[in-house]
Write a structure and sequence with these properties.
Blueprint (H helix, E strand, L loop, with lengths): L8 H4 L2 E6 L2 E7 L8 H8 L16 H6 L7 H7 L11 E6 L7 H14 L4 E5 L7 H4 L10 H5 L5 H4 L1 E2 L6 E5 L13 H12 L8 E5 L6 H7 L4 E6 L3 H16 L4 E9 L1 H5 L6 H8 L2 E7 L2 H9 L11 H15 L3 E6 L16
Parallel strand pairs: 3-7, 3-8, 4-6, 4-7, 8-9, 9-10
Antiparallel strand pairs: 1-2, 2-11, 5-6
Helix pairs in contact: 5-15, 9-10
Amino acid sequence: MCTVSPSSPSLLSPSFCCCSRMGIVSLNHLPTRTTFPPFVSSFALYPPKTLVTPVTHHPDSHHKCKRKKKKKLSVNAVLQWNRRPQYAGEPPRVVVVTSGKGGVGKTTTTANLSLSLARLQFNVVAIDADVGLRNLDLLLGLENRVNYTAVDVLQGECRLDQALISDKRWSNFHLLCISKPRFKIPITFGAKALVWLVDALKSRPEGCPDFVLIDCPAGIDAGFITAISPANEAILVTTPDITSLRDADRVTGLLECDGIKDIKMIVNRVRTDMIKGEDMMSVLDVQEMLGLGLLGVIPEDAEVIRSTNRGYPLVLNNPPTLAGLAFEQTAWRLVEQDSMQAVMVEEEPKKRGGFFSFFGG
Ligand code: ADP
Ligand code: MG
């Protein structure tokens, strides 16, 4: 049940507006697709505190209803009410999350997208291919459960399913770490080994995963080459600053050389106040510079840091946060191989401010 009619035009035309150096920018879905998950828009229209279980006003039950305490709907319940996004492509979709530059949000993106996809009932395996600075397990709160790693599988010390760490919250989500922290990675571990592991995931008796998300290390050296080798899609995470963009551009070229044609970008840590003050590049500028399809725009949000420290991915927060909702939208587009487009709009929209202005709500 939802408190908002799905036929409401605002539910089907989510947009994100912000200023750019060239004017006001509105980020909309491409006109061909209007598959935005209704729950996101309902959040956008109704602040989370008003998300309550709808009360049926039966004449006899009127007094009872009045007395009933308002009960919060969990995000999960809202998700169950809504339809599932349509899976595009062939399983497994092996997606590498990369950037070139470090610290732009690859691991944050991998953790949040993985759990968003798992909540949408897809089978997901996240591989932490950042062997030097492994921290995906920390972000997911699974660090105490890593007993075996991919290296142990390759050395014959355990089976693959023993190295796949399952999440108590979502049994259809698994994490695979390459090695234990401070363990020397064998030199033999490279592109071939990772391709072998992904092939082994495909042929598990439990079934082939729908998504394999690979968290790539920073840089463009051996670790990067290894991480991208089994991928057939890439998500390029960038922040709207010139250093990150230069690295992203270089990485795009390398991905294309490797035969990965499906490359989309996520612009992370966007601050509309800075864009308005012309202190930050707009998303439109970023898209024009990189010439890639836009999978999502994630705002700068202190909740990201809080969730990182708690080992509890942002998308699980209830009530949802601004960046959490943006990750949910991004996961939705990833499933449907959809993208959004940054466009210029003529006039500045009426100032609404507040929590949901980011979504044009
Ligand atoms: P990478 O894997 O690219 O090195 P991380 O995902 O580890 O980057 O993120 C680096 C830091 O940036 C972390 O402390 C994380 O909490 C923070 N961060 C990432 N995205 C955001 C965001 N949208 N808002 C605020 N902080 C963010
Ligand atoms: Mg990382």
